[in-house]
Specification:
Number of helices of chain A: 9
Strand content of chain B: 35-45%
Mean pLDDT of chain B: 70
CATH architecture of the largest domain in chain B: Beta Barrel
Structural class of chain B: alpha+beta
Number of domains of chain B: 2
Largest sheet of chain B: 13 strands, antiparallel
Number of domains of chain A: 2
Shape of chain A: globular
Helix content of chain A: 55-70%
Order of helices and strands of chain B: HHHHHEEEHHHHHHEHHEEEEEEEEEEEE
CATH class of the largest domain in chain B: Mainly Beta
Largest sheet of chain A: none
Number of strands of chain B: 16
Helix content of chain B: 25-40%
Mean pLDDT of chain A: 80
Oligomer: heterodimer
CATH topology of the largest domain in chain A: Arc Repressor Mutant, subunit A
CATH topology of the largest domain in chain B: Porin
Strand content of chain A: under 5%
């Protein structure tokens, strides 16, 4: 079933088309939600809210970009709204706090590397994690992030820098990456 | 550079990561976007039960109200009321008293009655018997009629039942019992088994006279002292339990009764595709003719019966002694499972036959009848309300046990929409709600074993229920008929 057929079906409120769209995109979108969420349950709630918006706002999709990208933007905005609504941002995003994060081997499930990295990202304080997710993984600019999170653009930049530094330390401690010998070739030393 | 590489690394590793949500998420989304299509069965059943209990409570007549109360004893004076009224009151008592009346039964009924107050001046000409029905070994009190002696009211408390002796006169009392009563009449307070011997000849004669006046069936009295001493309350009470029920109760019972029933059942279906074969099989090539039209359609589909239930409230009207008209309201849940495969969503065709010919509708379907990436089970479930209209016939009427047969026609309205139908190419299952027939006609037959307990008649037996119109519209060329088989348990209460 083509993407166009799915879109056409969803516009006609076809349950089968909606189900197909959901089956196709929900796994990726749940991973996105999970990176933003405090728990899997929160992630599923975000996913649910996001897909309801997708189906109810389907008529606003104008075929001007990637359909998946359109869904992804809706999901990301839903995640941010969810965090705001549940006052998740009240948590401290102080770097000093971040330095005390306990990274234990058992806190990261030893399954796939992608999942390990996601779990490492989720160890970050919420503010850092959100900015890192939005900038590094979702491609939003600091200006857009500032508008989305109601913070200054400079705050977004500084939080991102700290988040990235902290994540690197976590990844090294978890032996997912090695400490780079030089600044330019650390990626080559990634553990396979 | 280093920073950019970290971002690239994260994107490469993480961005395409997938996690699989639980099925509950889709159900919630579907319900939110497309509405709650499932009928809130639990709420409906709860409402039904509450309504049924309320109705049964309102219709239930408290039998204890039929018993004679002390407040009515004055009216039993034959000088004030004609004998006919007394007889009617007795009939009321007999009609409501079960044939196996026991002291406990009386006690239970008596608890609902107000405390008794005897006639203070002792002027009644109708003797009454009062007995403490809780402490059965304790005194049986006879309120004498003509002796002018004030009765000891201390014994007429709320645990005492009072029965006029005139009522006893209509029964076949043995001479020994009558003699026993005479003794008690003389001993307002006495312990059964230790009867005192201070009765006077005058009082005995008075009571004898009363007894003989009111009943010609009473034979001679003989006083057997040893037997008197051995008499017990239970033996005495047996004399209140032998009224022929047919002569008195017949005219008193209402012709109406009501009842409730529950029928766990399993649903089966039968498909016929004669119409599809006749019309679509002869249609032009463009028509989406199924590939298996030579095969019996029932062998193409795989369905599994599932448990449903029928809950009902019934009203009965006695046409004759054996034949009853029966109607009411009934809530049905019927369902069956379809075994199929989850597959990638495909477009399938449903051909509809109407006056203009064959009309093809393309619909999306993620369920393939032949193959897929995993097997799945579809639940075709219907919630229905029907009004059974039929008859019940008592094949065998025993004193306790019996056998009845019943049959009914049931106009039925389907409340929900949660059905999958087979596409007319037999390859997929698709949403069939838009083609579902809301009104249908069912019929039911059953045979029951009945058992009487007090005022209630319980019944249990096999039931079969058939759907006479296809589940879907006549446009859909594959017809589906449903059959339910179950066991019905219920009760009927005859109104007084």
């Amino acid at each position: 079933m083509t993407e166009q057929a799915i879109i056409a079906g969803c516009l006609q409120n076809s349950v089968a088309a909606q189900r197909e769209l959901y089956n196709r995109y929900s796994p990726k979108m749940l991973s996105v939600c999970y990176r933003f969420a405090q728990s899997r349950e929160d992630g599923e709630d975000m996913l649910q809210e996001g897909f309801i918006k997708v189906f109810t706002q389907m008529h606003t999709f104008q075929n001007k970009g990637a359909f998946e990208g359109w869904i992804r933007r809706i999901i990301v905005h839903t995640c941010i709204n969810f965090l705001k609504k549940h006052k998740k941002f009240n948590e401290s995003v102080d770097l000093a706090y971040a330095d005390y994060i306990q990274v234990k081997e058992e806190t990261v499930p030893s399954i796939m590397q992608a999942r390990q990295i996601i779990e490492c990202i989720r160890l970050l304080p919420l503010g850092y994690r959100t900015v890192l997710n939005l900038y590094a993984l979702e491609g939003y600019s600091h200006k857009e992030i500032g508008q989305m999170l109601d913070i200054e653009e400079s705050t977004s930049r500084s939080q991102y820098t700290r988040a990235k530094s902290m994540l690197e330390n976590i990844l090294i401690r978890k032996q997912i990456i090695d400490r780079p010998k030089t600044e330019f070739n650390w990626l080559a030393t990634l553990k396979k | 550079m280093y920073q950019d590489e970290l971002e690239q690394f994260l994107q490469d590793e993480v961005k395409d990561h997938r996690m699989y949500p639980s099925d509950k998420i889709w159900r919630n989304i579907n319900a939110e976007v497309n509405g709650h299509q499932r009928w809130p069965a639990l709420s409906f059943i709860s409402l039904f039960i509450i309504t049924a209990l309320t109705i049964s409570t309102l219709l239930n007549i408290n039998p204890s109200q039929k018993l004679l109360r002390a407040s009515s004893l004055k009216q039993l004076d034959p000088n004030k009321l004609p004998q006919k009224d007394l007889t009617n009151r007795l009939n009321d008592f007999n009609a409501t008293a079960p044939s196996d009346l026991t002291a406990n039964t009386i006690a239970n009924l008596k608890r609902k009655s107000p405390p008794l107050e005897p006639e203070k001046n002792g002027r009644e000409k109708t003797p009454v018997i009062a007995m403490n029905v809780i402490n059965r070994a304790e005194p049986i009190l006879v309120l004498k009629s003509l002796d002018k002696q004030p009765t000891k009211s201390a014994f007429l408390d709320e645990l005492t039942i009072v029965i006029p002796l005139t009522s006893i006169s209509s029964r076949n009392l043995s001479s020994k019992k009558l003699n026993f009563l005479a003794e008690m009449n003389e001993q307002p307070i006495m312990s059964v088994g230790s009867i005192k011997e201070n009765n006077t000849e005058h009082q005995l004669n008075e009571l004898q006279a009363n007894r003989l006046e009111s009943s010609s069936e009473v034979s001679a009295i003989s006083v057997g002292k040893a037997e008197k001493e051995l008499a017990t309350t239970d033996v005495f009470l047996k004399d209140f339990a032998y009224v022929s029920p047919t002569r008195i109760e017949k005219g008193k019972n209402s012709k109406f009764g009501f009842g409730f029933f529950i029928t766990p059942s399993t649903s089966y279906r039968k498909l016929t595709d004669d119409k599809a074969k006749d019309i679509l099989g002869a249609a032009p090539v463009s028509a989406p003719v199924g590939l298996n039209y030579t095969t019996n359609i029932n062998s193409i589909v795989r369905h599994k019966p599932a448990v449903g239930i029928e809950l009902g409230f019934a009203v009965l009207y006695n046409i004759t002694n054996r034949l009853k008209f029966k109607t009411g309201i009934q809530f049905n849940t019927r369902q069956y499972y379809i075994e199929t495969f989850q597959a990638s969503t495909d477009i399938t065709t449903i051909s509809l036959v109407n006056n203009r010919g064959v009309e093809n509708i393309s619909v999306f379907s993620p369920y393939n009848n032949n193959n897929g990436y995993k097997s799945t089970q579809l639940d075709n479930k219907m919630y229905q309300v029907s009004i059974p209209i039929g008859f019940q016939y008592d094949l065998i009427q025993g004193r306790k046990l019996g056998i009845t047969a019943e049959a009914s026609i049931q106009p039925t309205f389907t409340l929900n929409k949660s059905l999958y139908l087979l596409s007319t190419d037999y390859k997929h299952y698709a949403d069939g709600n838009s083609l579902m027939r809301k009104w249908n006609i069912n019929s039911a037959v059953g045979i029951n074993i009945t058992y009487k307990t007090g005022a209630y008649q319980w019944y249990l037996g096999p039931q079969a229920r058939f759907q006479h119109l296809p589940t879907y519209s006549n446009k859909y060329p594959i017809t589906e008929y449903l059959m339910d088989y179950g066991i019905r348990l219920g009760f009927i209460k005859q109104l007084k």
